[in-house]
UniProtKB/TrEMBL annotation:
This is Glycerol-3-phosphate dehydrogenase. Residues 5-360 form the FAD dependent oxidoreductase domain. Its cofactor is FAD. Its EC number is 1.1.5.3. Coiled coil: none annotated. The keyword Flavoprotein applies. PANTHER family: GLYCEROL-3-PHOSPHATE DEHYDROGENASE (PTHR11985), GLYCEROL-3-PHOSPHATE DEHYDROGENASE, MITOCHONDRIAL (PTHR11985:SF15). Pfam families: DAO (PF01266). Keywords: FAD, Flavoprotein, Oxidoreductase. It comes from Shewanella psychrophila.
Length: 391
């Protein structure tokens, strides 16, 4: 049986990025995705390539700096998929975050962007507030405009996978992994593909299965302890309302969370929620509570659009992504979005990815490949992903 360098389980954005980065570094790669590439969480995010302005509130400075650097790289490498877009933050007399706090946050955001031109922000003059169609003006104290980026998350994932394939990676859709036998010198990965059970020997295995990451851990022989995590659902609503000119960064009128109102395919996209799931069975679906939570926030800021019932009639689609967050006390909104790359001395040829962000998939991929180099030694690189376009 031939031994390849690495089997990657999971064809979301992290699995795709690792396949591209590892292939570029000269490793032999097999990527297994039980469904369609980019068909789960990586197709159901808020579709933002951003630094994460709100993460400054919880002191995640390194995450914001890293995200802003990756935003700059993706705008350069995938300009047809990642587009700069203005964000607007309205501040009201009832807002928990006053205009001075917002200004301080945006100043820090600009500094962390290393004074990238996209890091600029401004306070809009009063005469321009009404240009944000339908926005409630009563009690409005300030409107700030700054810049981040938006993408088609599924299309971006698929483009990264195509790049990995061009660099030599083998990618299998509808290939579900089974038992993984961890041995001292290699792993044997069983998977079902086209009704055939296949066993592949690999020097390393990367578990990038997203919300199903602990299901992969449960398939290990010998067994290994799992991290305690919460599966947190984020729901989005697509409303048949003409798309706004930019993205509205809104403070929830129910709690301190941030919700976005975004343009998407000519309509208005609203999201997201944070609902902890007891378990994940099948395709996640928006709950009634999530729908009314999002519609309530939208109605609060855009009262002229009608009642909650009228807005519900304008919903043309709903979708959910599921995040993996460390199991801690308190609100999921305040938990770290830093990815956890987990290894174990009992299973030294396996790395597991818990969590992560769409924006930082390239940085995550580089960390994983550095770990591979420590296990397998360096290979002769065939490409540099920092200059390889994502087409």
């Amino acid at each position: 049986m031939d031994t390849i360098d690495v089997v990657i389980i999971g064809g979301g954005i992290n699995g795709a990025g690792i396949a591209q980065c590892a292939s570029a570094a000269g490793y032999s790669v097999l990527l297994l995705e039980k469904g369609a590439i980019g068909g789960q969480t990586s197709a159901n995010s808020s579709k933002l390539i951003h630094g994460g302005l709100r993460y400054l509130e919880t002191g995640q400075i390194s995450l914001v700096r890293n995200s802003l650097s990756e935003r700059r790289a993706l705008l350069r490498l995938a300009p047809h998929l990642v587009k700069a877009v203005p964000f607007y933050i309205p501040v009201y007399d009832t807002s928990q975050r006053n205009q001075w706090a917002i200004r301080a946050g945006l100043t820090a955001y600009s500094i962390l962007s290393e004074f990238d031109p996209l890091g600029r922000f401004t306070s809009l003059p009063t005469v321009e507030w009404s240009n944000i169609t339908g926005l409630k003006l009563q009690g409005l104290k300030a409107v700030f405009r700054y810049w981040d980026a938006q993408t088609d998350d599924k299309a971006l994932t698929q483009a990264v996978v195509r790049s990995a394939q061009d660099l030599g990676a083998q990618v299998l859709n509808h290939a579900e992994s089974g038992v993984i036998v961890h041995k001292p010198d290699y792993c044997e990965v069983s998977y079902l593909y086209q009704d055939n059970l296949v066993v592949q020997r690999a020097s390393c295995v990367i578990n990038a299965a997203g919300p199903w990451v602990n299901d992969v851990i449960e398939s290990l022989v010998p067994p290994m302890a799992k991290e305690r995590v919460d599966l947190v659902q984020g729901s989005h609503l697509l409303l048949d309302i003409p798309a706004p000119d930019g993205i509205l960064y809104l403070e929830s009128c129910f709690d301190k969370r941030v919700v976005f109102v975004m343009p998407w395919k000519g309509k208005t996209l609203l999201g997201t929620t944070e609902t902890v799931l007891e378990e994940l069975n099948g395709k996640p679906e928006s709950t009634r509570e999530e729908i009314y939570y999002l519609l309530g926030i939208y109605k609060h800021y855009f009262p002229a659009q009608g009642s909650a019932e009228q807005l519900e009639a304008l919903i043309t689609d709903t979708f959910c992504g599921v995040r993996v967050l460390p199991q801690l006390n308190g609100s999921s909104f305040d938990r770290s979005r830093e990815i956890l790359l987990k290894t174990s001395f009992t299973h030294p040829r396996l790395m597991t990815l818990y969590g992560g962000k769409l924006t930082t998939f390239r940085a995550t991929s580089k960390e994983v490949v550095q770990w591979m180099e420590s296990r397998l030694g360096k290979r002769d690189a065939i490409a540099d992903i920092d200059i390889t376009p994502i087409l």
